[in-house]
Amino acid sequence: MTRVAGNKSFWEDSYRYIDTENIGMISFAQYIFGVSFSKWDKIDPWEVICRMFDDKEDSYLDKEEVEKLLKIVESAGNPNSIKLKESLISKYSETPTMTYEQFKKHFSHYTEIIDICQAALLSVLEISEEQQIITKFENQAAGHAGDILKDGATILKSYCEREFRFYELIKKLPKIQNFFATYYGRKSRAQDGAFQYYIVMEDLTHGMKQPCIMDLKMARNTWEPTAPAKKKVEQSTLDRISTSGELGFRICGMRAWQIKKKEYIIRDKPWGMYIKSTQMEAALRSFFHNGIQFRDDLVMEVLPQLYDILEWFKVQRIFRFYGSSILFVYDGANVDKPVIKAKMVDFAHTVRIRDGGKDDSYKYGLVTLIDILENILGRKKRTKSIATSTNGGMMGGGSGGGGPGGVGVGTVGSGYNL
Questions:
Q1: Nearest-angstrom CA–CA distance, 3 and 11
Q2: Hey, how many other C-beta atoms are within 10 angstroms of the C-beta on 165?
Q3: What whole-number distance in Å separates Cα of residue 66 and Cα of residue 103?
Q4: Which of 147, 221, 284, 328 is most solvent-facing, going by the fewest CB within 10 Å?
Q5: Strand, coil or helix: 282
Q6: DSSP assignment, residue 159?
Q7: Taking the model in full, what pTM does it have?
C-alpha cells in the first residue's frame, strides 16, 4: 500500500488495510495516531509527533514519554536509527523535559523521525495480537445495561472525560492502586461507521465460574454541588429515603450464587433503595450466604481491605467522591478459599478538593459499613462508630439480631469524630 503524507484518505485506507477481519478494534492512541497523519499537510509534523507521545498532555515531552519514541526508532530498522537513538538519549540526559519547540529545535535535522513515526502507524497496528471477540458484559450488579463491554480479561466502559482524568491522575499515586481495578487507558472502537470511546479496565470477575457481586453506593450525599437543581432534588430525595443519609451507603444491587439450587439470588436497585437501616445487617449477610452456609471467612477477608481504604480517607485531601461505589466480588463456586475483592469504582462525578477539607461523607459510610460487618462477625468494633442521625438522635441501638426479618444496626451509633 502506498503511504503519501497529506493524502486525506490515508487513515481510511490504513484502517481498511490493517482491519482485514473487520473487527473494527483499535486503541484510542492508535486512532489519534492515524487521524494526525491523515492531516499531515495541515499540521506541523513535529507538533504531531510531540502530541503522539505527550501522554500527560502538558505540551512537554519528558524522558519517560520519549522512551516510547525510542522503542519505535529501535524497531524501525532505519540506517540512522542507532545514531538517532544515541542523540535522543544524550539530549534527554542534559534536558530531561522539553517543550515541543525545544524538541523540534534539537531533532528537526533528523527528518527520518517523521518517516519512522508515519510508518509506525502500520507497524504498531500490525503487531500480531489475538483479537478478542467483544461482547456485552453480563456480570453487573448495578449500572446501565450496555454501558460496559467485555474484551477478554478486560472490560470497556463508556468513555467519560472526568473519569478518564481521574484514572490518569491516580496512576501517580502508587500507594492506593490496590483500591481500584487495574486501569489500562482508553480505546476506540469502530461501530456503525463511527468511533465509540471506552475506558479499559480489569474485569474483576475474569476467571470466576460463578461471580458474586455487590454494588454499594457510598457517601451520605451522592450528588455533587455543581449538579443542576433538578438533579440535586432527585438525588437528595434518594439519599433521604434510602439508607444513604443515615448509614452513608446503600445497596445498588447484588448477585449471590446459591450452591444447592444452582441459581443466583439477584437484588436490584429498588430492592436496595427500600432497605431500612435496621435491615442492613441482614441484607449484607445474604450476600455472603451461599444457601448452605454463611461465609464468615469472606467477611474476615474483605474487612482488612476496607480498613486500608478507610485509613486513606482519614488523611486524603485530594478528592471528593459523588455517586461512587465499592464493589465486592468473589467466586461463589470457590468454597475452599476465602478470596474476595473490594474495589472502588465509578468516578464520573469525582471532584478535586479545593477547600482544604476531606471527604467526610464517604468516610462516614466506610466506618458504618465496617462496623456492621464487624457486628456480623460478633467482634468488637474497631472504628468507634460515627453514626449520628440527621435529626439529631442516635441511630441503631441494640446488639442486632441474626435473622433476615429485622436486624438492629447494633452499636453503629456511638459518636465517632470525623
A1: 10
A2: 14
A3: 10
A4: 147
A5: helix
A6: P
A7: 0.62
